[in-house]
Design goal:
6-stranded mixed β-sheet; Rossmann fold; amino-acid transport; ATP binding; 4-stranded antiparallel β-sheet; single chain; binds adenosine-5'-diphosphate; ATP hydrolysis activity; binds magnesium ion
């Protein structure tokens, strides 16, 4: 579904991505692991069109989408839930959800918002509250729900569990699994490596802008070298 081929990305003169390649098969969950500063967010920004690669190509569903803008990619079915959530804190929960569907022209938006609220009852309860008054976990759910309302084929999630309490983290991983089971392909960036691999099919390890390892999630989970170097933080 997604093929990233040898992309380079720079901030000014500093090269942050050095010929990154990765593939995401339709229907799968793929995780990118890596320490702080490895280039994970930059990779997600490049795939979602926020940053233009200086070399390499990106293919989505067999089409060359290299250099397209985020709104063009969104229309093709690529949605990003950015790091740090970035919901609109001065708008209500409902308005935030409506923003997720702003580019759609079909008549199912109201029904889809209803469905999303059924799935995230807390968002229904708080629909008139400002986004900024939600807790971190609720904001993350809102960010994910908003992305779902764009009806993505590929959902990019940049550290969705960051800064959340363990119980909420478990919820978030469960939600990601459910979204995938409902037919959406997922590319996930996580520091919570063990839990991320447990729900993933395949994983990549990024180190200072280069892919240094890849393999099935099972293989990565069972590789002591990788566990020690990249899966650092222990969790269940
Ligand atoms: N807007 C920016 N301007 C300049 N350098 C940046 C910017 N954003 C990130 N960087 C640098 O690029 C590198 C990769 O960052 P990032 O992709 O955010 O890593 P990660 O998400 O893996 O923590 C880091 O060295 C970071 O300091
Ligand atoms: Mg990041």
């Amino acid at each position: 579904m997604l093929k990233v081929n040898g992309i380079n990305a720079f901030y000014g003169k500093i090269q942050v991505l050095k010929s990154i390649s990765l593939e995401v098969e339709e229907g799968s969950i793929v995780t990118i692991l890596g320490a702080n500063g490895a280039g994970k967010t930059t990779t997600m920004k490049t795939i979602s069109g926020l940053l233009k690669p200086q070399a390499g190509s990106i293919q989505f569903q067999g089409q060359d989408v290299t250099g397209l803008r985020p709104d063009q990619l969104l229309r093709k079915g690529v949605a990003l839930v950015p790091e740090g959530r970035q919901i609109l804190s001065g708008m209500t929960v409902l308005e935030n959800l409506e923003m997720g569907a702003y580019h759609r022209k079909d008549n199912e938006i109201a029904q889809d918002i209803k469905n999303v609220m059924e799935r995230f009852p807390i968002l229904e309860e708080r629909q008139k509250q400002l986004g900024g008054t939600l807790s971190g976990g609720q904001q993350q759910m809102l960010a994910i729900a908003r992305a779902i309302l764009s009806k993505p084929k590929l959902l990019l999630l940049d550290e969705p569990s960051m800064g959340l309490a363990p119980l909420i983290v478990a919820d978030i991983f469960k939600i990601i699994t459910e979204i995938n089971e409902a037919g959406t392909t997922v590319l996930l960036v996580e520091q919570n490596a063990r839990q991320a691999l447990k729900i993933s099919d395949y994983g990549y390890v990024l180190e200072t802008g280069k892919m240094v390892a890849e393999g099935s999630s099972q293989k990565l989970l069972n590789d002591p070298r990788i566990m020690e170097a990249y899966l650092g933080r222990k969790s269940s």
